[in-house]
Amino acid sequence: MRITVEGISEGKPIPGPFAFAVPDPKEHMNLSDNRNPKVVWDGAPEGTRSFALLVVDPDAPTDASDVNQEGKTVPEELPRADFYHWVLVDIPAEVRQIDEGEDSDGVTPRGKSTGRVEKGVRGANDYTDFLAGDPDMKGVYGGYDGPCPPWNDERLHHYIFTVYALDVTSLGLDGDFRGPDVIKAMEGHILDRASVTGTYTLNANV
């Protein structure tokens, strides 16, 4: 299989319009366009009955104590964990692309709905947890929301876009299911996969 994420090249920075936030010299960061990029794939193997699309950042800090705190940094050596930015499953077998802005076009306070959309079924991304303590932003964040790594993080973050070809029409997931739920449900059903990785930082020193 092959995947193309328009505007994102392997190992290169993700453009600001596809991010949740962009750097700001005075405020550290400002909210961005938060548009999902166009994702196109082909070369699916025979027997493909649906696709799943995940975007994960494996560089999320496991300890948020110093995240976005003045006078502090998030050290590069701090242990990291996965943070899912896009969870979309049960994409019909005939679909070969998600258009730019189709799943996200702007930051939506309190999130977007999960469940059935035109090209699949949305799960909840990890902003659902990250923003749970913010009274103005807390909610369930369905579909795509772009990069917003800590502005004081010493580590460059990586965002892995992966499309999976599956041998089932549905993974049987509903409600506010999450990235790890998809990984578990796909076990034994993956025929092929393709990925591209972009990078992003809000730290001018990285």
From TrEMBL:
Instruction: Look up the domain of life of the source.
Output: Bacteria
- Short name of one Pfam family: PBP
Q: Which CDD domains match?
A: PEBP_bact_arch
- Cite the InterPro entries for this sequence: PEBP (IPR008914), PEBP-like_sf (IPR036610), YbhB_YbcL/LppC-like (IPR005247)
Region described as Disordered: 99-119
Residue ranges that the Swiss-Prot or TrEMBL entry lists as coiled coil? none
Q: Which SUPFAM superfamilies match?
A: PEBP-like (SSF49777)
Could you tell me what this protein is called? PBP family phospholipid-binding protein
Q: Which organism is it from?
A: Alloalcanivorax profundimaris
